[in-house]
TrEMBL record:
Pfam families (alphabetical): Methyltransf_21 (PF05050)
Native source species: Noctiluca scintillans (Sea sparkle)
Entry superkingdom: Eukaryota
Residue intervals of the Methyltransferase FkbM domain: 173-298
Protein's name according to its UniProt entry: Methyltransferase FkbM domain-containing protein
Length: 390
């Protein structure tokens, strides 16, 4: 009903518009009730199968004080998604299913092909040169931050490529679920999405690199995005002009639309401009049923939200629920190829450090969560690199 209403709202009478909006509101309320029912069911199921295994992660003041210096001595900042991805490639070469939520200019998705399937001839540098730059110039599309602060516009460093080759598995050893390699990229911003679709219309990799004009979150409905910015997370306020985009959850895409079939998601990357935690919450069932191996997301985020039947009010609580109910351990990168652990007794994301003579909150960081059994080898490698607090 909500989708059909959206098709004729432009030409409808005020009475029809009112009826449609009432129907949309009813649909949203009905969906919210269903979510609450599912959350309650998930919580009950967890209590039945994991009773007695819930542990507190509250830190004492003494523990927090001891963590601060260790964290600040090793904190490296936020712009390290490229390093994260290469790190995953070293140890999870068999990965074949990727989700890029907040695909933006497509450079992260292109890097996936560059690292895992170079035979497609797709690279982040090549994509920026052949697709993004010409499109921006031709359309006059403004961009104040074309490549971001990351290294995604550059070629993969030679030492990284050499290390990847040393870790690479032979073709006979690589398990790719029937060799069906696929990257699903989600981008709600209209002009960015149109750019990717236009480019793919002239190339033969549409089946392996699929773009979806959807805003992924923890609810179903609609949001409005501006037409003249490259920032996919810039949601418009009521009354402002823009393009209406449908919002959807990853659980609905997985279990309702069967977009991923029965496949396990090897890598889920989220960059939703402050709404990353909502995307995680919208994947509650996928997480609870252990269908996500590695997940990357950014901080800070907005709270509260409901994740797997629990109310979450902070990043620490988010990592705690992921630990107990999704068997995932979360980290942020540290100097010297180490990791700072967020799971367990950790108040890391509330620490303030002096970085290059400026006070910087550790909460502005990229987080990587690894499933302890579905990605057992990688989880063990990452844990061995984690800093030990005094």
């Amino acid at each position: 009903m909500a989708r059909s209403c959206a098709r004729f709202l432009r030409d409808a009478s005020l009475v029809s518009v009112g009826a449609c909006l009432h129907a949309v509101l009813f649909d949203v309320q009905l969906f919210n009730r269903k979510i609450e029912t599912v959350a309650t069911s998930l919580a009950a199921r967890f209590e039945q199968t994991h009773s007695g295994n819930i542990s507190s992660t509250v830190c004492s003041e003494e523990q927090r004080d001891k963590q601060d210096k260790v964290v600040c001595d090793h904190f490296v900042g936020r712009d390290n998604l490229d390093e994260f991805l290469a790190y995953v490639r070293y140890h999870v070469p068999e990965a074949s299913t990727f989700l890029d939520v907040g695909g933006n200019k497509g450079l992260f998705s292109a890097r996936i092909f560059e690292l895992w399937r170079p035979e497609f001839g797709i690279s982040s540098k090549g994509y920026s040169r052949e697709c993004v730059t010409p499109y921006f110039k031709r359309t006059g599309f403004p961009s104040h931050n074309f490549c971001g602060k990351s290294n995604m516009c550059r070629e993969v460093a030679p030492d990284v490529l050499a290390r990847i080759r040393s870790f690479a598995m032979s073709p006979s050893e690589v398990r790719r679920d029937g060799d069906l390699f696929v990257v699903h990229s989600f981008e709600p911003q209209p002009l960015l999405f149109d750019m990717h679709v236009e480019y793919q219309g002239h190339n033969g990799f549409r089946e392996v690199w699929q773009w979806h004009r959807l805003a992924v979150s923890d609810f179903h409905g609609q949001v409005r995005f501006p037409n003249n910015t490259d920032e996919g997370g810039a949601i418009m306020m009521d009354g402002e002009e823009g393009t209406v985009v449908e919002t959807v959850t990853l659980d609905t895409l997985a279990y309702g639309h069967r977009l991923f079939g029965n496949r396990v998601i090897d890598v889920l990357k989220i960059d939703a401009e402050g709404f990353d935690a909502q995307v995680v919450a919208g994947a509650s069932r996928l997480l609870f049923e252990q269908r996500i191996r590695v997940m990357m997301w950014e901080t800070p985020n907005r709270f509260p939200l409901t994740l797997m039947g629990e109310i979450v009010t902070s990043h620490e609580a988010l990592c705690d629920v992921l630990d107990r109910k999704a068997l995932m351990t979360c980290y942020i990168p540290a100097k010297h190829d180490r990791m700072i652990k967020l799971t367990g007794c950790s108040q890391v994301l509330s620490v303030k450090c002096s970085v290059k003579r400026q006070v910087q909150r550790v909460s502005k960081a990229n987080v990587m969560c690894v499933h302890r059994t579905n990605a057992e080898h990688f989880a063990r490698v990452v844990e061995e690199r984690a800093l030990v607090y005094p």
